[in-house]
TrEMBL record:
This is Globin domain-containing protein. GO terms for molecular function: haptoglobin binding; heme binding; iron ion binding; organic acid binding; oxygen binding; oxygen carrier activity; peroxidase activity. Belongs to the globin family. Keywords: Heme, Iron, Metal-binding, Oxygen transport, Transport. Coiled coil: none annotated. It comes from Hemibagrus wyckioides. The lineage of its organism: Eukaryota, Metazoa, Chordata, Craniata, Vertebrata. Residues 1-142 form the Globin domain.
Amino acid sequence: SLSEKDKEIVKTLWAKISPAADQLGCEALSRMFLVFPQTKTYFSHWPDLSSGSSSVKAHGKKVMEGIGEAVNNIDDLFGAMSNLSELHAFKLRIDPANFKILSHNLLVMIAKCFPKDFTAEAHLSLEKFFSRVALALSDKYR
Ligand code: ZNH
């Protein structure tokens, strides 16, 4: 699980990148749809799934708000994510394997947009953080 050091690193990095969260979310989703096209099946009800469309923008913002919640509640990730976990498990029926795929795309975009801050140390802590978020989001699956 996350050490105190991991938590500090994630919070510090988030403080830096959160002003660009909407754009990062939009770009991570756009990239996910291109590189892992199977993920698009969950969003077939959207009018436009192309990169940077208004649906992708709006959803990128929501996802990043979820990540922001996770950062703000990093000591109680499972509690903070429990409603979202229920939503993804029972209503949206998202295969939890996709959480890793989205996390990967978020990492890639953070690395790309904040190369100086994305040290190996930051990479490790973020990797651990996203794994915990994915685990918390998978908690309600039964
Ligand atoms: Zn998700 C939705 C978050 C992942 C799919 N999401 C959602 C929301 C949020 C989120 C916040 C909104 C809710 C409401 O509205 O209430 N997600 C999230 C996060 C994550 C996720 C944080 C991780 C990290 N998702 C995901 C994935 C997928 C998804 C991976 C697949 C692939 N989601 C989804 C859907 C939805 C959501 C489908 C719905 C959309 C609409 O609305 O249309």
